[in-house]
């Protein structure tokens, strides 16, 4: 592993960030006002979560995001306090608000994703140029949703530009965005099991099924396929091996941000020259530490350090 002074550049693209509001309540009751026991406000969106995770892992990164209106100003205030380096693209409208409701009586979790502002072609092109320039020959993390008016192949374009500049693109998205991105042959994709099932159009009931589909994606030009599987851990299929990482047994408070935390852990170690085995272990430790947190709160480094040794990574003969 290289030291922090020779770490590769890391850039994170967040075109649809949000302010996340989490309410803890006893239980939702139709047509009745319910008073929250507690509430919290966090910067949100997948790319923002990855940037926050990298910061907590003490990995230098720059997050490139769109902000709009009064909510955007509030988000900027939060991000300036939580990230080392952020590049903002101001647009008209309002940054979206996401809502999470946690029921203490049932353990149920409800999530509502808000609608983001309109972003013009010139605006996203400008932000994308900055993102690629910062990434250079390092890592470009491309993750999350897009505003509905943006082209579905935008992430594919981002992948092509990152890799044409000599960098490696890591994509964590879904549906059409992921389909198009795969055609651009990113270095890594990280779908969860359900996203991979949607991608291939069939249920994947065991590890053999997942590895088979991952290898087909590699035939289309993807180098690493990492499939997260919740409490079962994750599979990482590379050009040379199939690794299974077992998730440690931890108390579950919220799954929000778990996938983003895995991406942060993997990207952070890749930027420092770590092995694929260590990168997978770090990603799983970060994800496990996040599900121990309430609402949209992410892991803390102390918990990751403790859990890292509990993550068992084995090579599979599949």
UniProtKB/TrEMBL annotation:
Gene3D superfamilies: 3.40.1190.20
Keywords for the protein's UniProt record, in alphabetical order: ATP-binding, Kinase, Nucleotide-binding, Transferase
Keyword Zinc-finger included in the entry's annotation: no
Pfam family, one: PfkB
Molecular functions per Gene Ontology: ATP binding; phosphofructokinase activity
Gene Ontology biological process: carbohydrate catabolic process; small molecule metabolic process
Record-level GO cellular component terms: cytosol
NCBIfam families given in the database record: 1-PFK
Family: Belongs to the carbohydrate kinase PfkB family.
Name of the protein in question: Phosphofructokinase
Organism of origin: Marinobacter guineae
């Amino acid at each position: 592993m290289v030291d922090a002074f020779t770490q590769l550049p890391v850039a994170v693209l967040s075109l649809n960030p949000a302010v996340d509001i989490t309410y803890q309540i006893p239980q939702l009751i139709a047509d009745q006002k319910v008073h929250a026991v507690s509430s919290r406000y966090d910067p949100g969106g997948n790319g923002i979560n990855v940037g926050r995770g990298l910061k907590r892992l003490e990995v230098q990164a720059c997050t490139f995001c769109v902000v709009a209106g009064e909510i955007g100003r509030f988000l900027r205030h939060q991000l300036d306090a939580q990230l080392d380096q952020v590049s903002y693209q101001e647009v008209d409208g309002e940054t979206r608000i996401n809502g999470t409701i946690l029921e203490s009586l049932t353990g149920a979790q409800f999530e509502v994703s808000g609608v983001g502002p309109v972003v013009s072609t010139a605006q996203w092109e400008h932000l994308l140029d900055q993102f690629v320039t910062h990434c250079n020959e390092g890592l470009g993390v491309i993750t999350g949703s897009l505003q509905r008016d943006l082209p579905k192949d935008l992430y594919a374009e981002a992948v092509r530009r990152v890799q044409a500049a000599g960098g490696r693109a890591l994509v964590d998205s879904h549906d059409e965005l992921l389909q198009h991105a795969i055609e651009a042959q990113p270095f890594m994709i990280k779908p969860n099991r359900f996203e991979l099932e949607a991608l291939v159009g069939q249920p994947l009931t065991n590890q053999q099924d997942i590895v088979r589909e991952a290898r087909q994606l590699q035939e289309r030009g993807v180098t690493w396929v990492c499939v997260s599987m919740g409490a079962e851990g994750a599979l990482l299929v590379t050009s040379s091996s199939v690794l299974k990482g077992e998730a440690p047994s931890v108390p579950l408070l919220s799954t929000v941000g778990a996938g983003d935390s895995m991406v942060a852990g993997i990207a952070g170690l890749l930027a420092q020259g770590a092995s694929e085995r260590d990168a997978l272990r770090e990603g799983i430790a970060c994800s496990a530490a996040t599900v121990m947190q309430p609402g949209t709160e992410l892991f803390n480094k102390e918990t990751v350090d403790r859990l890292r040794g509990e993550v068992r990574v084995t090579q599979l003969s599949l």
